[in-house]
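Thread: quick sanity check before group meeting

JM: Hey all, I'm pulling together slides for Thursday and realized we never actually wrote out the predicted structure for the chain we discussed last week. Dropping the sequence here so it's in one place. If anyone has concerns about the input, flag it before I start.
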Amino acid sequence: MRERCRPRGRREAGGGGGRRAGGAAVSPPREQRGAPAAGGGGRRAMEEGAADLRQRRKQNCTESDKMAPEERNKENSKLGRSPKYLLIQRFAKLFFGCLAAVTSGMMYAVYLSTYHERKFWFSSRQELEREITFQGDSAIYYSFYKELLKAPSFERGVYELTHNNKTISLKTINAVQQMTLYPELIASVLYQASGSEEVIEPVYFYIGIVFGLQGIYVTALFVTSWVMSGTWLAGMLTVAWFIINRTDTTRIDYSIPSRENWALPYFACQVAALTGYLKKNLNCSAEKFCYLLVSASTYTFMMMWEYSHYLLFVQAVSLFLLDSFALAQTEKVHEVYKIYLFSLLLGYLLQFENSALLVSPLLSLVAALMLSKCLQMNMKKGTFLSRLLKIMYIYLVLTITLTLNFLLKMFVPHKENEHLLKFLEVKLGLNTTKNFTMNWLLCQESLQAPSQDFFLRLTQSSLLPFYILVLIICLFSVTQVIFRRICGEPLKETVKLEDGRIGERPEIVYHVIHTILLGSLAMCLEGMKYLWTPYVCMLAAFGVCSPELWMTLFKWLRLKAVHPILLALILSMAVPTIIGFSLWKEFFPRIMSELSEIQEFYDPDTVELMTWIKRQAPVAAVFAGSPQLMGVIKLCTGWMVSSLPIYNDDDLLKRNENIYQIYSKRSAEDIYKILTSYKANFLIIEDSICNEVGPVRGCRVKDLLDIANGHVVCEEGDSYAYSKYGRFCHEIKMNYSPYVNYFTRVYWNRSYFVYRINTVISFQS
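JM (edit): ok, ran it. Output follows.
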């Protein structure tokens, strides 16, 4: 970065001559030309110096940064505009654009806070009722945040989390590494350092940070669309589409503390900075700022989410394709690769030597790209071998990537995320399994193909049709540019509006490739739509607001009746305005009705259960039940549990499967042995799982257990569950031997049945 942004006008001492503003080498004086000492050697020195200066100029800042002030003034005077007028115009545009971006983010954060309050009535509820609204893994994240605040000091709290033996029975875990608790560490530090204890309750501070990050998320999308199109009208349209399609753009409504809600705002900031960094004609200061922002946001994103390196891998593939077709400056792309490498290595050290980062495909790809570049640089240009390497560049990178990843997995001990590979094998039809965990994951809605309702919602908001239109135009334009590059035609330094070549802008090409890759994943897994749809909103808004896109289309149509530039400018303003008014008319009343509609989330049975545990259960008791319920128990009571809804650890996945056997057709003795092996004292049966009537037969918990245990008999195409034992969760409610010998019912309500696991077994009938 330092070399590329060297100040203008600096001359090298031994270069043999200066350089004019136009770029031609200045000839030496006659005395020097005629000097005998400067014969062939002097000419060679001059040529080498000129070549060196040319090379440095390639690495220098953009042409706009080198243009002499006098030339700019002449150009502006021809247009009848003074430099002062242009400066004021640019400042006003930047000021109002930034104001609109920040205002959009703040309004979205306030909207989320208001909607959350109307949905759960947080302000009028007790602390226990508030905590019950955190379900599943969300409850675990917030429970550790509470523990940090209760610790006598921050250092002591961190130590207890990294050596945690009070959460899961018979298991000591590093909760910070296991569950990526860096957001909770930051939130607790901010809460205590800011002196907010006397001003705001911890739960409001916590969810307020998450809602604030969502505001930053929207602001980053606004800026990205603005940078690409040149008008902040595109940013406004991006925000409108994002909020209208909130069901498909974010999971904030269902799981506030989830890792992606903390991480994706940083990724959006990284994408916005990367968009600016890839632009042509970027001045030196802006390039430095974008580079630093990409670096900081990439590392922060990697620390916030355990699966972040997979998303960065998709981004790296996009940049690799962009560079392979020579559509961007290679130096810039490789600077981003260095950022990936630095973030991975630093993340590995600060995440307690997380081996998942070492065996990640991102590290293998970046290392392969660096190695391939070294091979190309060391080869003499023009030779047969160098040309062969250039042709086989993509194949070479893929081969090295796969080889490195295989070697790393062979030599680096790792257990993390192995279940993801097994899941992909089954999902792609490469393997079949009766394993409960794999089949349970396959049945999750977020891991299935998206439904027709998803595409219908995007079509009703007019997002999908405009996205497809913009994508087709950009894709065809990029294809034309790639064909020209293959034919040897160089890219233009500056693409003008009348050129109609939107595919020559590297930031546009990057976003086209990126959305296609994310869209391909979203077509396979519905959960990936939360990564894809926000950038669909951004790309569609950019396209309809960009005169260059319309000009590209008109170039193909060869319009002659109307001036194409004028029509492109008119459509870039008229189309988004019409879309905005139609969205306002149709969806604004719905959004306001959401805020005014009185909703109520109340679960009295769960409240009663938590109250009974806090009053009646011994402090040293260990509870067993479904992992989702155990997370709520840990949050609301602080009692130890036998399992948790954590899906990145093989041992915990096995525990969850064993505990779920309480809903299978197993004997009382088998269940008793399983529970006592985890030192459980109390068992909780959930009626909603035991009597589950799922929409898809075969995806209920009890069905999956019957398949895993071999209790399913297939006859004439129909499946029947068969076992010599009845279903445990039904039989235990009958209160007859041998169930009463092992378990004693101590509490029940409409939803839950609590049994004490007997330590002394009596077999008297």
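AS: nice. Residues 1-43, 53-60, 62-79 have pLDDT under 50 and may be disordered. The chain has 37 helices and seven strands.
JM: adding both to the slides.
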